[in-house]
């Protein structure tokens, strides 16, 4: 952790955490995360990067409070994980409900999972009415308009349906939905996946600006180191379920100790070289 973060309380503390998925075969399971340790200070953004199957999305689900909640979600089988002061290993349903009110979660391709029967504004407002079905409609409308504006969408977007929006716009609606309750922690799993390359930078900049304005802590999964450098000072690099690099982005790249991290550093150097040649 950097010096500034060391003096702040922790939003997330993971100590030797292991996470498994139940298998369709009786008695079998798949270990997605194998004893990882890290923390996130209050107000800090930690990026997680890794190849497909590295365990980063499983870790994001656990931090979002979804591990052990059934369905396709994994289970924490080892170590401890504390999120916003609550231990989430074997957490009760009631405690999980209270915790998730304070955590905004943007799953992979969440823009595609918006309810097609609801307008964008209604999708964003849904967490409000899930918490309180009798919440004042005028106050809800103001809150939705405020967060829609914050993600740089015109207010007319509120009255449009998901199929009328571009993929990038839908993703911003999903981010607005995750932020509508004013969470203390944002967990975003690859928020630029599948979005046109010309829009990715805008989405990342929006998250960074919202982080500055609102002061939430964040865990953000990304798939490229070049993206990570745009929004985070600290990164955890995962490979086959373990963390193989952790620290300041430049420090990790300058002194890679694992061959996977070496490959990421080399790829970034190659990209810089190619960009320099194209400019020249």
Structure description:
This protein is an alpha/beta fold. It has a domain at 43-68 and 95-102 and 183-279: 3-Layer(aba) Sandwich (Rossmann fold). Helices cover 40% and strands 25% of the residues. The chain contains 10 helices and 10 strands. The protein has helices spanning 3-6, 56-63, 93-100, 120-131, 137-150, 167-179, 197-214, 225-231, 249-254, 259-279, and strands at residues 10-22, 29-41, 45-50, 75-83, 86-87, 103-106, 185-189, 217-222, 234-239, 242-248. The strands form 2 sheets. The chain has a 6-stranded mixed beta sheet with strand order 6-7-8-3-9-10, sandwiched between helices. Strands 2-1-4-5 form a 4-stranded antiparallel beta sheet, covered by helices on one side. Helix 5 crosses helix 6 (167-179). It is globular. The chain starts with a helix and ends with a helix. 39% of the residues are buried.
Give the proportion of residues in helices: 25-40%
User: What is the straight-line distance between the termini?
Assistant: 38 Å
Gross morphology is globular
Which CATH class of one domain is shown?
Answer: Alpha Beta
**Total count of helical runs of at least 4 residues:** 10
Give the helices and strands as they follow along the chain: HEEEHEEHEHHHEHEHEEHH
Kindly report the name of the CATH homologous superfamily of one domain: P-loop containing nucleotide triphosphate hydrolases
Beta-strand fraction estimate: 25-35%
Strand arrangement within the widest β-sheet reads 6-7-8-3-9-10
């Amino acid at each position: 952790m950097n010096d500034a973060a060391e003096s702040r309380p922790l939003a997330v503390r993971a100590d030797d955490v292991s996470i498994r998925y139940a298998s369709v075969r009786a008695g079998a399971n798949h270990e997605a995360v194998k004893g990882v340790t890290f923390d996130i200070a209050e107000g800090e953004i930690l990026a997680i990067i890794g190849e497909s199957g590295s365990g980063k999305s499983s870790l994001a689900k656990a931090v979002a409070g979804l591990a052990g909640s059934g369905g396709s979600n994994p289970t924490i089988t080892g170590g401890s994980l504390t999120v916003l002061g609550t231990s989430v290993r074997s957490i009760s349903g009631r405690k999980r409900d209270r915790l998730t009110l304070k955590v905004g979660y943007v799953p992979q391709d969440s823009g595609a999972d918006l309810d097609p029967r609801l307008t964008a504004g209604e999708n964003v407002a849904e967490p409000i009415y899930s918490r309180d079905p009798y919440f004042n409609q005028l106050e809800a409308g103001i809150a939705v308009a405020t967060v829609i504006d914050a993600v740089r969408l015109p207010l007319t977007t509120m009255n449009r349906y998901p199929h009328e929006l571009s993929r990038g716009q839908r993703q911003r609606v999903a981010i607005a939905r995750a932020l509508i309750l004013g969470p203390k922690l944002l967990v975003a799993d690859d928020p630029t996946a599948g979005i046109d390359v010309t829009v990715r930078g805008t989405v990342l900049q929006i998250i960074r600006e919202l982080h500055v304005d609102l002061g939430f802590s964040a865990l953000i999964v990304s798939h490229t180191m070049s993206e990570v450098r745009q929004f985070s000072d600290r990164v955890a690099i995962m490979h086959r379920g373990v963390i193989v690099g952790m620290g300041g982005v430049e420090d990790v790249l300058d002194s890679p100790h694992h061959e996977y991290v070496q490959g990421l550093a080399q790829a970034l150097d190659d990209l810089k070289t190619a960009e320099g040649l194209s400019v020249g």
